[in-house]
Design goal:
mainly alpha, about 75% helix, globular
């Protein structure tokens, strides 16, 4: 852990790295805010949870579909122009959503606008992951990708907290409005940061043309995408199980403690991963994914919320290290000029997996109980293990 802290310190000391981290995190903050913010907006307007869920789901599905498209634009156009365009459309869509929700507009219009906001979510995450290899030397890449994996946990912990505080202090629409404002400020600061601005203004030298799935041609890229679906399935199934478990052991709201512990474990794992530079990333991913599948069995033994929280903390340890490895593998195996699009596909894969896990897990909870949904999560983790245990692909031509 000490090596991890030192690795992060050395990473931030690199020219341009501190600005990339600070503005990149701020620009991505709406990702962790918007789901809950949309639900609270709809409920505050008198709509049912079913309608609120439909609006939020529309945005999530559109984001999953649009992420590879946004990544492809980053790869093939000037990233500066792409980010500015998305940075204008996204807050405009959120503003329109607030107006419609507070004026009793029909549900279909809210779903359409939510989908527009999801599809126009600025592709900051794939851009940041692509920039790391250009802004820092190779010895810091492991720390950079470990930080990226950890940053996702930070966003999904702090985002809902910010929305909850703003909604309680101001109004049900405050969370959505804040997401739009934060996006504007974050994107503006991100694209204007010195070394980042210089890189983003450069024309793309390796722009490739091909069919929409051409970026998935490298076997290892396809494998990482499939691996991410398995992990997403585990996330969705286990996350939907926590409120149900807590409801049977003291109160549904206590499920947030279990989920926070899971994210906390991932944060600790990310810190540990920052201090480790694997000689063979695929071998390391195989070991860590097996560990994740095994540790995910622990929640089946919990008899109280506090015991579940401890088990979830332990089960979360392999998550950030797993994604730190996959991000590095994408950087080295994706064809030149396609990295941002591949990172977009990873986002799509995780969202699809989470949606499937939550949907099937909820059904299993109704029919067979909480442990059935947790076991579905274990199955997702085992599927991810099976993907990475396939024989190593033959060496591919560079570029």
């Amino acid at each position: 852990m000490t090596r991890g802290l030192r690795s992060y310190r050395d990473l931030l000391a690199q020219p341009g790295a501190a600005g990339l981290v600070a503005w990149g995190l701020l620009a991505r903050m709406p990702i962790g805010m918007i789901g809950l913010a949309q639900v609270l907006l709809m409920r505050g307007s008198g709509e049912s949870y079913a309608d609120a869920g439909l609006v939020a789901a529309g945005g999530a599905v559109a984001y999953a579909v649009g992420a590879p498209v946004a990544g492809r634009l980053i790869d093939r156009r000037r990233p500066f122009v792409v980010l500015i365009a998305y940075g204008v459309v996204y807050p405009a869509a959120l503003a329109l959503l607030v107006v419609l929700a507070t004026s009793d507009a029909p549900l279909w219009s809210l779903v359409v606008v939510s989908m527009a906001s999801g599809a126009s979510q600025p592709p900051v995450a794939p851009t940041v992951r692509m920039l790391w290899s250009s802004l820092v030397v190779s010895s810091h890449h492991s720390a950079a990708f470990a930080f990226e994996a950890t940053a996702q946990e930070l966003l999904f912990i702090t985002g809902p907290l910010v929305v909850g505080v703003l909604t309680a202090a101001f109004s049900p629409s405050a969370g959505v409005i804040a997401a739009g404002v934060i996006s504007i400020v974050g994107i503006a600061g991100f694209v204007m940061t010195g070394p980042v601005r210089h890189y983003l203004l450069k024309p793309r030298e390796h722009a490739r043309r091909g069919h929409p799935l051409s970026t998935l041609a490298p076997p290892m890229v396809r494998r990482i995408v499939a691996f991410s679906v398995g992990y997403g399935l585990a996330f969705g199934a286990v996350e939907v199980a926590m409120p149900a478990f807590a409801e049977a052991h003291g109160g549904r709201e206590l499920g947030s403690i279990c989920l926070a512990a899971w994210s906390g474990g991932s944060l600790i794992g990310g810190l540990l991963a920052a201090g480790h530079r694997p000689d063979d990333p695929l071998r390391s991913l195989r070991l860590i994914s097996v560990l994740f599948a095994v540790l995910l069995l622990l929640p089946l033994l919990a008899g109280s919320v506090w015991m579940m929280s401890v088990f979830m903390l332990i089960a979360g340890l392999p998550i950030a290290p797993s994604f730190a490895l996959t991000y590095g593998m994408v950087q080295h195996t994706a064809r030149a000029g396609t990295q941002a699009e591949v990172f977009g596909w990873l986002s799509t894969a995780i969202v699809v997996g989470i949606a499937a896990g939550a949907a099937f897990g909820g059904s299993l909870i109704t029919r067979s109980g909480t442990n059935a949904s947790i076991l579905l999560g274990v199955i997702g983790a085992v599927a991810a293990v099976a993907v990475v245990m396939l024989p190593r692909p033959a060496a591919e031509p560079a570029g």
